[in-house]
Design brief:
The protein has one domain (26-136). It has two helices and no strands. By secondary structure, it is mainly α. The relative contact order is 0.03.
């Protein structure tokens, strides 16, 4: 209790005039006595709220930890399966590339066959022309 509260008890009560004997009631104590049960219940509620909050934080931490472990497991499984998934994803592309490569090779073979046929067809006339060219200077020097 403060000094002010103590001195407050000795203030005159009632209207000015005749003196009244006795000490006035302690209003602070009365208020404290009146509010004590409500405040005690409020204290219990605050303690319950703190307990619930702590339990919630603990549960949240457990959930976070479990989720982190589950995420690590998922990432590990994904890394383990990644090569197989990559090869499965690349398989159609590789197949298409091999088909395209085979088609280009066949087209090249056909073009080469055409060139060979032309060469075979034109070779006798080229040989004749080459022989004629080779013999022309010889025939021009002393030939009749």
């Amino acid at each position: 209790m403060s000094l002010r509260d103590f001195l407050e008890r000795f203030r005159p009560t009632g209207t000015p005039g005749a003196a009244v004997t006795g000490v006035p009631p302690d209003r602070a104590a009365e208020r404290a006595a009146e509010l004590a049960p409500a405040l005690d219940r409020l204290t219990a509620v605050q303690q319950e709220a703190a307990r619930i909050r702590a339990a919630g934080q603990e549960a949240a931490e457990t959930i976070r930890r479990d989720a982190g472990q589950e995420a690590e497991g998922i990432v590990a499984a994904a890394r383990e399966q990644a090569p197989q998934v990559r090869s499965q994803a690349a398989e159609p592309v590789v197949r298409d590339a091999l088909r395209e490569t085979e088609a280009v090779r066949l087209a090249g073979d056909q073009a080469a066959d055409v060139v060979r046929e032309r060469a075979r067809a034109g070779l006798p006339s080229l040989v004749d022309d080459a022989v004629a060219q080779a013999l022309r200077p010889a025939a021009g020097r002393g030939a009749p």
